[in-house]
Amino acid sequence: MFDDRTVRIIHILQDSFLPLLKAGITVTVPLAIISFILGLLLALATALARISGVKVLEGIARFYVWIIRGTPLLVQLFIIFYGLPAAGIIIDAWPGAIIGFSLNVGAYASETIRAAILSIPKGQWEAAYSVGMSYTQVLRRIILPQAARVSVPPLANSFISLVKDTSLAAAITLTEMFQVGQRITAATYEPLWLYIEVAFIYLMFCTVLSRLQNYLEAKLGRYVIK
């Protein structure tokens, strides 16, 4: 029914699916989650620095965002993994990838969070201050819960993009899903079908995440006053 080459390709795809999926679950997804969480913490700090009114903090935050948003992510990873050793700073692939992705997420997400915070009417700040709340209390109890709901769609999109961007970690020798696909391709000489299989697994992950995003948006939308 099938010729020998077709049968061979089918067997290769069958044999490679589980190793690719395992790499995706054990390396790609954890890398994305850890980097995103650290990136969000950095993004929040950066956003608060941008609106703090303290010139030094604003300047540092602006410079950080300018550098990260103005340079390619791949170049940033190369600087961290291949460039820093020239200065005596050696970072392994796994922490190097986390640092690179976290810095990237922090810069982009900070603008999302800053815009969400600034979208809250100033009257709410003033009302909270009038009842004796401190700046920290206003942020924690009033502003950030509302800003979080506004930020969910763009931040969720950023996380989905990050899952795909983790494929760049293959360039710094991290054995994530894409690099596993590259190694199998080098051994089997079937780049077309194997890369399609890798793309399919990424598509599976992103589809699940998109469904979770829709669910989260719908749940948070119940608390939005219309």
UniProtKB/TrEMBL annotation:
Extract the PROSITE patterns matched here: ABC_TM1 (PS50928)
Keyword Transmembrane helix listed? The answer is yes
Q: Where is it located?
A: Cell membrane
Which terms are listed as keywords in the entry?
Amino-acid transport, Cell membrane, Membrane, Transmembrane, Transmembrane helix, Transport
Transmembrane segments annotated in the record for this chain = 27-51, 63-84, 192-212
Show where the ABC transmembrane type-1 domain sits.
Answer: 25-213
Query: Does the entry feature the keyword Cell membrane, yes or no?
Result: yes
Pfam families in the record, alphabetically? BPD_transp_1
| Superkingdom in the source lineage | Bacteria
Q: Which GO terms describe its molecular function?
A: transmembrane transporter activity
Question: Which named protein is this?
Answer: Cystine transport system permease protein
From the broadest rank down, the organism's phylogenetic lineage runs: Bacteria, Bacillati, Bacillota, Clostridia, Peptostreptococcales
Q: Could you tell me the membrane topology recorded for this protein? A: Multi-pass membrane protein
- The species this protein belongs to is Anaerosolibacter carboniphilus
- Primary subcellular site in the record, as a coarse category: membrane
A biological process (GO) of this protein is: amino acid transport
Q: What's one GO-annotated cellular component?
A: ATP-binding cassette (ABC) transporter complex
Assigned protein family:
Belongs to the binding-protein-dependent transport system permease family.
